[in-house]
Structure formats: C-alpha cells, structure tokens
Amino acid sequence: MPGVKRERADTVAVLTLDEPASLNAMTPDLLGDLAVAIGEIDADPKVRAVVLTGAGRGFCSGQNLKAAQILGDDIAAGVMKFYWPAFKAMRECRVPIVVAVNGVAAGGGFSLAMAGDMIVAARSARFIQVFSRIALVPDLGSTWLLPRLVGRQRALELMMTNEPLTADLAKEWGLVREVFDDAGLHDGALALARKLASGPTRALVATRRLIDESEHAGYADQFRSEIETQAKIRLSADALEGRNAFLEKRAAVFTGG
After folding, report:
1. What architecture (CATH level 2) is domain 3-197?
2. How far apart are CA 136 and CA 250, in angstroms?
3. How confident is residue 1, by pLDDT bands cut at 50, 70 and 90?
C-alpha cells in the first residue's frame, strides 16, 4: 500500500514517502502515515536519528489536488486536521531529523523539507514555491520557515517569482547543509544521521526547541530559558558522560540518556 516506508540502519530510522507515481504528492493518508511513523519512532528508544526522503524521482511535489476534496469545505480546518499532525510531529520529534531531498520539493513539499532539522540534497534536487503561479499564497508553514532559513528578501524572491532553486544555490543560501551526487545522497544522509545519532540526543533536541522558542522571545526571556533548560539537561546521563570524558581527556560515548 502507498504510504511511508519504514527501514532501520542501526540507530537511524529511514522513512521514505512512498507514492512515486505522483512524485509523493501529499494526501491525508500519506501525511497521516508520516505522523504515525514518527510517533512510532518517538516510542522507540533505540532510534537516535531519522532520515526522511522520497521514493522515485522526487521528494514531494506538493499537495495532491485530487485528494484535496477530502479536506472538506472548511480548508483551514481540513489542513489542520489532516496535515498539521505530521508537521507538528517532525518539529517535536524526540530525535533529530535529516531530510534528504531527491528531485523536486515543490509547494507543500518544500514546506515539508523545511520542517526537519537539516536538509541535504541530491545535485539534481530543485526547490520551488509554486503558489503564486496559481494565484495562491505559500502555506504549510513556508512563510514562517523560509525567511528564517534564507532571509526575508530571498524568501520573497522565491515566493513571488516561482523560480526553481538549485541544490547548489540552496547550499550557498544556507537552506541545504550539503549537496551530494544523486547516487551518493542516501549514504550521505545516513552518514549525517549517524553522526547526530551518536550525539547527546536530549541536548540536541532541547537545542532545537530553544532555537524555535527564540523566534518569539525577548533577549532576557531567552537568556533565562537557556539556563533553565541547562539546569535540567546537566543532570542527564549524557551530560555526566560529557563532563567525565572532558576531565579524562577521552572521546565521550553518548547513549541518548
């Protein structure tokens, strides 16, 4: 059945949007299964990082317009019911998420890629907003995420002109961490995910939360929030291991605890 394919590579979970005939276009079923898959990861302490990618020639071509009727007459309510849970699950996942963009990430697919923690891309990847081409505004979080990743002017450029952004230029702009030859994307994404999986998971995810909260916080409030989080994190097993390793002049071995 179409949906999200689940695989494991040691401590890394690999999730693949698996509707290649439509370039993995979004449907309520597909995103519902993605939310379920991330929920399964959250419940599995053996998983320390995630790779999210797409099957076939593209990452995600945006919303499947044929399936849009399922959203109902109240589009906002339908999107929040069927699509938001997957985006929320990604932003709040218990472990870091590496998004590996193969081929096109268009419209809502572009938004989905940005919902992860880091993006890597195949050299053939293209990012395109699409929305104004059909007289719509960007949605699924694009206007919140994209300016924070590439800046206001570049975000407006992409959103108003609909010009595709190449993988290499996306790296130059700071949207993509690394670009790989197409055949090397999977291994490159796994290598980054394994690096994150070997890290202090709780501290990494707490860092993500602090970064997100900082968008709406004043300097003094964020200053306090960092220290309050630090006071909790420093009691973790990984923090104790980190301090001991530093004092003993050896490499730390983190377990995610």
Report:
1. Alpha-Beta Complex (3.90)
2. 55
3. low
